[in-house]
What does this fold into?
Amino acid sequence: MNKLIEKNFVLAASQYKLLEKNTPDSLMPRFFDPAGNKSGTSNTKWWCSGFFPGSLLYIYEQTKDEEIRRIAEKRLAILEKEKYYTGNHDLGFMIYCSFGNAYRLFGKPEYKEAVMTAAGSLASRYRPAINSIQSWNSSERLNCPVIIDNMMNLELLYWVSDNGGDAKYRDIAVTHANTTLQHHFRADNSSYHVLDWDLEKKEIIKKVTWQGAADSSAWARGQSWGLYGYTMMYRFSKNKAYLEQARKIGNFLLNHPNLPADKIPYWDFNAPGIPDTYRDASAGAVMASALLELGQYVSKKEKKKYVRAAKQMLLSLSSDVYLTQPGENGGFLLKQNVGSLPHNSEVKVSLTYADYYFLEALLRYKNWYLKK
Ligand code: GLY
It folds into this structure.
């Protein structure tokens, strides 16, 4: 694993320099579709804008390549203004994965300030009537949606309160996690993607999907967000209920009959046409990273199970099936990701967040499970 991790980071450094070259200075990379040899970019308001600098920072952490650090800092500079963004709940992805990592590595006060300010922006979406942060603004189809992905954004809030910020952010994170625990999960510990709330009646109108195969299905990346979210919430709070939920989700996923032998899930655990449908490497990468953290909090026997599964995921993602060759896919790392199949958007493409959680999982494996 040591050699494999090193090799992956050498590839990552050269690929990400290429990705930088392929991306205009004012934008962020978004996807690469090998079918049409087509790349896509986004502005910094897109929910994924923190992943490019975040991945560069993970690459720097491992390689100490100063060119990579320079690119990371250049990209942080165009992202910084989004600390004020209040258009959706994605501030954690956007600002914590980028500025949070930058502060962890370099300790610059301005990086911390960006994270602190972003907490206020994210908290502006907290709706006391439903004890939740509203994920997306209301639309024709949804009134007040709260999605399972939102668990990920709690990391920023909790971190801010634990690092000198207002305690109210921690309270919001805990309250949101408790509401999600109460309403988002089914009896088998899979989760709904979207809960649509009526703010006045303080009631759930419906439980539906946005990116999954069906309202009742287990959309793969959503399951991974839940697993990661409750493991992370346990890290901060040491609340056993969160650990218990993470273990339940982990066991639902690892025991699922539709989890393939290479442990990289189909885009939805209940996708029609399994096994002849798309894998989602991003769901596998998030799951691997989460399982590695979960392994830190459980018995030796249980840890073995999670770490073994995560290792299999990382080995699979490092194979030619999922990992690009130098120069391929515009400079991204992982292929075979699905953004939103129901919208026929970003299917079988490279995506920034898949790379980010893959790199994070490789570092976690190295730092926590390899002998120094
Ligand atoms: N948070 C959006 C996604 O996972 O696609």
